[in-house]
Structure formats: structure tokens, C-alpha cells
Amino acid sequence: MHALQTEYFDAYRSLKLTRDANGVLIAEFHSNGGPFTFAAQDHTEIVDAFYRISQDRANKIVILTGAGGGFITGVEWPSFGNVSDPGVWSQIHDEGVQVLENIANIRVPVIAAIEGRAHVHSEYALLANVIVAAEGATFLDGAHFAAGVVPGDGIFTTWSYRAGAGRAEAFLLNPQPLPARTAYEWGVVAEVVPNGKALNRAQELAGLYLKAPEVTRRNTRVHFIQPLKERIVREVGYGLSLEGASAADLVKIKGSQG
Description:
The protein is α/β, with parallel strands linked by helices. It has helices spanning 40-55, 86-104, 123-126, 155-163, 165-173, 180-185, 198-209, 214-257, and strands at 15-19, 24-29, 37-38, 61-66, 74-75, 110-114, 117-118, 130-134, 138-139, 178-179, 191-193.
């Protein structure tokens, strides 16, 4: 049965999936094996990827990480097309909601291992139960207010849930790289480790969690994620609608300036 479910491991351009004999799945974001730059194709594919991960009961623990000493480092803006087109934004909106719901629906403990830059979609990491960050890791929302659009895709929902609304609003309105140590002081990061050691420590924690019975592990994740899942359902569709309106306005402004 489990062998039949692993065909999806090789289905995604920018998400490398590997699972050890104990059922610890590592989901590694990458672009051609190096640091991950987010493109429209990836936005589409990871919706399916996290759905498949969530429904595969052979996955006992999930670790999210990135290749090449980064997590998600940038965005390939042109790949998304004309974001002022309602049809284009409708797809971005739906995928944006679905990917967060699908990560939240992973029903086993999730650990994020962050090296380097978590500068785009750091909310994916904040949907983990535990974040292990390297000393040199930094968190940033470089893709919204700094770029001229509303931070409506779940970045506010997750950061305000983990760090508090006041910190989240200041962080998102004046985006500056947030060091791992500060994120630890805010309660967002659980552990700070030497550079290059985040994944190793995440694997150690996975081994620790595996000592608990499977139903206990699964139900603990379900219990812990429920309040954040409720906020995602309430807030992110609306937030992405606001973001879409601001994106359309930004296109209009740039057109008038051109």
C-alpha cells in the first residue's frame, strides 16, 4: 500500500521529497538543486504536493527545509502574469488558500529546519509545530508591503498567531531581516543551532517524537494546529482578496507612470 503512494515523490519540479525507513519525510524546497526562488508553476504544484503529503499515512513526521543554505529566497514575479487580471488572480487566490490549508491538514508533527533566508512565504514554516533555525537564518516578508501589496496571504495570520499582533504588524509594515535569535525571543523559533545544523537537529527531534504512539502523535498535531487552522479559514481568503485589489492598483499605478 505504501509503495503505491510514493509515486508523487518525483512529481514536483521544486520540492524534493525523501522519506527514511522510520517514516520521516523531508520536503526540501529548491530551484535546480540550489536556493529556492518561487515561481507560478511552484505555486500550483505545491498545493497538490502538500495534499498528497497530508493524506499519506506512511509519513510519520514531516520536516520542511530548503536547499543550498536557504529556505525560500526570492520570487520570480513575471511568471505570475498580469495580476490585475481577475482570472489570473483567481488562480493565485485559490492556490494561496489551498496550500496553507493543506499544510495545516498534515496530521503528523511538522518541523521546519531553516537555514539562511526565509524571505518569501515564511508562513509555511510557521505552520510547523517547531521551528529549528540556524544562527545565520533570517526571516523577512519581502514580497508584500515592501513591494506595494497587502500582506494578505497568511503571513499576517501566522506571524500574529506566533509572535503577537503588534510585533507582526511592525514586522510586516517595515520589512527588515529578522535574525533567528530575535525570532527565538519572540517565541516563533523553538531552537537556534549552529549554521548547517538545522536539519540535523530537526531529524533528532523527529526521532524523539517517534517514541510516542502513532495515534498520540497524529492527534497531538491535530489538536495543536486547530486554532491556527481556524484563523486560516476565516482570514486568508479575505486577505488574498484585499491583496489582489492592491496588486491590481499597483499595476494601474505603474502603467500610468510608464
